[in-house]
Amino acid sequence: MDSNLINVLYLSSFVFIPLVMLFGLWLARNINQVRGVMVAGSSLLLGLSVYLVFDFLGARVSDPTSEMLFTGSFSWFEPLNIKYSVGVDGISVAMLLLSAVIVFTGTFASWQLKPLTKEYFLWFTLLSMGVFGFFITVDMFAMFMFYEIALIPMYLLIGVWGSGKKEYAAMKLTLMLMGGSAFLMIGIFGIFYGAGGATMNIVEIANQTGGAHTIDFTQQCIWFPLTFIGFGVLGALFPFHTWSPDGHASAPTAVSMLHAGVLMKLGGYGCFRIAMYLLPDAANELGWIFLILTGISVVYGAFSACVQTDLKYINAYSSVSHCGLVLFAILMLNKTACTGAVLQMLSHGLMTALFFALIGMIYGRTHTRDIRELSGLMKIMPFLAVCYVIAGLANLGLPGLSGFIAEMTIFVGSFQNADTFHRVLTIAACSSIVITAVYILRLVGKILYGTCTNEHHLKLTDATWDERFSVICLIVAVAGLGLAPLWVSNMISTGVAPIVDHIQNVSHVVSASNPFL
């Protein structure tokens, strides 16, 4: 069989499996069949992603020079030279593994969800299909299509199965992300026609004669802000982040896990893969503006988390801060910082999924997320409380857990830029570590320790088997990344290096428009 077709089928399995799951869910007639379809499908996706990691590492040894592995394509829409093109590098393989872990654990976190369980999992599976499709494709149009598939189900998942101001949150989230999509679509077609209109394949555009210099510098300075903001809205870029806290606070547990754990990573991934990679001159010229905005996101998100009283709002603003670090590191334009950005995407994805899972389990028992009404949970539900402490320690960067290695790589890489402007911003961003420790330790002390004064809470039970399984899987992943980060870091660096080299080797290595340099 043709290797091109084999590769297309191989990577497209990440999309075909959710499609089969959708068909199976449609045929399911009771909740046990629905659960069976979800467990079987999410287990297949997790197994396939683990197999892909080992397959990728083996293929990289035999072919260390290729930018993308397992590439394949076929014509999709000839008038615009749109092809269904697939391929993976170390970054996308890591994101596929993260997505599979969150979908698998999110299935068990939603084990007891009612009502409309079947309909809920239909939309949840469609959302996951969009995420997987986004990470396997290297064609801008196909990426945009899967991006939209991943966004649309959020409206119903929050509006129907959410809590609190769910209709308002669903509408706000959808409108703001659709606004970002409009910017993104304009930017993508601007890149396509600016590069000659011959292809929408990302690698082919970057590797054309002269690279991205086939796109006029003036045009780059137009399309770069549009694409960076378009993806940055999903990555909680200041001041376009306001949808995030409301959306996370109202979403059901597994949707919060997938949204904060994976969907927000589409923003950072897209900024790096398209905005930075294909428009390097503009990235060098205008990056300082977005560096300031992302620095604000990092510090502002951490301070905002300190003053919240709702558990989900605290974690949502924490996500604004940590996702801001991803964009902040990408804009530093060196390999160490960009590797740290991808590690942060992995680390934050696992940590925030763990947090939202635990918050959902606590809320399901106490029926409140207000920290002023919670205390003494360590004696009442010790398993969930200990897991919450572990999640908090990972969030504030305890060595041995994933948060430490990711943030240290980012800050070390950021400080490698020797000019005053970058180092001052790096020091300011480092202050978020202290602020994070403040709200995490305050939160843990308030809700877990002390004396429980609510008689209803004294009668509560600890985690069930499905909740324990979901949480333990995430804790093992967080600890595994923290204790053995080298293999992940090496895999990621193989994808980061060619992109950063391409950006650094452009002819317009300019900083004249930056008044601070």
- Count of discrete alpha- or pi-helical segments spanning 4 or more residues: 20
Distance between the termini: 56 Å
Helix content: over 70%
Strand content: under 5%
Mean pLDDT over the full residue set: 85
Sequence of secondary-structure elements:
HHEEHHHHHHHHHHHHHHHHHH
**Uncertain ranges:** 507-514
Q: Count the E strands.
A: 2
* Number of separate domains: 1
Cα Rg: 22 Å
Describe the largest sheet.
2 strands, antiparallel
Q: How does the helix and strand content classify structurally?
A: mainly alpha
Molecular structure report:
With 517 residues, this protein is mainly alpha-helical. It has one domain. It has 20 helices and 2 strands. α8 packs antiparallel against α11, α8 (217-234) packs parallel to α12 and α14 (335-366) packs antiparallel against α19.
Task: Break the fold down into its secondary structure elements and pairings.
Blueprint: H1 3-27, H2 31-62, E1 69-77, E2 82-88, H3 90-109, H4 117-136, H5 140-161, H6 166-194, H7 202-206, H8 217-234, H9 243-250, H10 253-263, H11 265-278, H12 280-306, H13 311-330, H14 335-366, H15 377-380, H16 382-395, H17 402-415, H18 420-448, H19 465-483, H20 486-504
Antiparallel strand pairs: 1-2
Helix pairs in contact: 1-2, 1-4, 2-3, 3-4, 3-10, 3-14, 3-19, 3-20, 4-5, 5-6, 6-8, 6-9, 8-11, 8-12, 9-13, 10-14, 11-13, 11-20, 12-13, 12-18, 13-14, 13-18, 14-16, 14-17, 14-19, 14-20, 16-18, 16-19, 17-19
